[in-house]
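seq:
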Amino acid sequence: MVGYWIETVIFMFASIGALLLGFELLSSNITKLCHSSLKKLFNKTQNKAIIGVGIGAIATAIMQSSGATTVMVVGFVNTGLINLAQATALIMGANIGTTITAQLAALSSFDFGAYAILTAGLGAFITMLGKKDRTKTIGNALTGFGILFLGLECMSLAIKNPDGDGNLVVYETIKNILQNVNGTGAWIILFLLGIVLTAAVQSSSLITTIIIQLVGAGIYIGAGEGATCLTNNVLFLILGSNIGSCVTALMSSMGAGTNAKRASVIHLLFNAFGSILFAVLLLLWPNFMEITFVKWFKGESTQIAMFHTFFNTICTLIFLPIISVFVKTSTALVREKDSKKEVHRLIYIDDRILTTPSVAVHQVRKELALMYSRSVEALNISIDAFLNKDDEKREIVDARIEELEFTNKQIIEFMVKLTNQNLAFEDECTLSSFHRTLNDVLRIAEIGDNVCKYAKYMVKHELEFSSNVMVQLGFMKNKINDLYAQTDEIFLTKNLKKMHLADSLEEEIDQMRKDLIDDHFDRLNRGECKPQNSGVFVNLVNNLERAADHMIYIAYSVKEASDQAKIK
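struct:
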């Protein structure tokens, strides 16, 4: 008997493992296939709540995980990509989208065993024989779909595994325990059990799937001995699971900004209020299940799945018009801290958005653009320090360079994590180009540091330059800023039509460097300039021209990534 129980437990854990593997393969590869569509969806998140609900539902249906969507939403809020009202709509939509998992699980009530093996095998062959990345991704998705149903099939077999005498010991044991959780206080037990189990595994989809498997096997949870159909009691398990699913978002918000914490609180409030509302309804309407879903749909698995969809849809319809109430409540519960602003904090990227690689790549681009602007600011400060003979500005530039180096490290760490995700080839090319961009951005800031050193040397040794020279250097500075404006737009918008303008500006700066140096040596030969000025002036002008070179490199990195993606 001990061996029988060990065998069954191993079989059950293997089934759950296959189930989780199937979900992971299916969701990750479908997400990869639909990366561009997901990116467009999230880019269209607007202040219209109904649009947000639709986007949240579609994204979650694709990714097969409301937890993943909610964590991602928390990340979006934390990076300022969306506001709290938009986040609330997305969360509501995610709760509807996650019900597709229950609908898939309900299909296991049909005999899909042979088809599951066929689908998994077909997917494996496509993956092995496919030459293109997209083909391999399709194969992996099919494999995941097949393994998912194999896991469901094996779970059913594990529950009904007979002992040596042909007795369904496990089935009868589970049935006696769960089916007899009834009576006056049964709903409380099942409600709390749903919360605890879901919080423990951090997957409401998994708990719902297991519930569907149990009822599909004829175990009427909470219905009592001799029951012939489902009762309200099993629904309390579903409602509790809905609250337990909030743990993932709450844990994700730890260490995040105030608005990210508020988004996770909104998720908890929405799910808790909805679950409590339906719990009251079920208590006031004891035969709700018997006269509705039991009559409307055949098969206990389908009845549970349809209730799950009904529950989340109705809650969304009820609470959608009062999104502002959720926002205000979360704001009151999670107050802004009266602490100093965090130093060196990344604005646009967050580990929580790694699950949507295309969105994450776009956010890295925005973070790099911000870093680029700060680097150019440091350069401008240093040029002004030289023109105004103010070596005290060096402290500002040093602080800015320190900030940029710290930011550089954080961005690289994020991009390493992003590289491990299922990236589309276009995103791989873009990410590779970002590493070169980072180097160019830092070089511009370092040039600013060099210019500060020249300013300090000029002040210390009381060097003088003519007003005409200072004016010409001012012109060069303006031209460099014009080039920055063009290259920054190219980098952010990927508008390669403006490359000729950037090239033209860079050529002008090259010519200015040549003219300035030639004029300097002419003045030197005429005795109008001191020889000790030469080292400072020539190095200064060369450094400014090098800054322009790095700017044009940033623009060309966009072009190279685009060309590489097209070749593929």
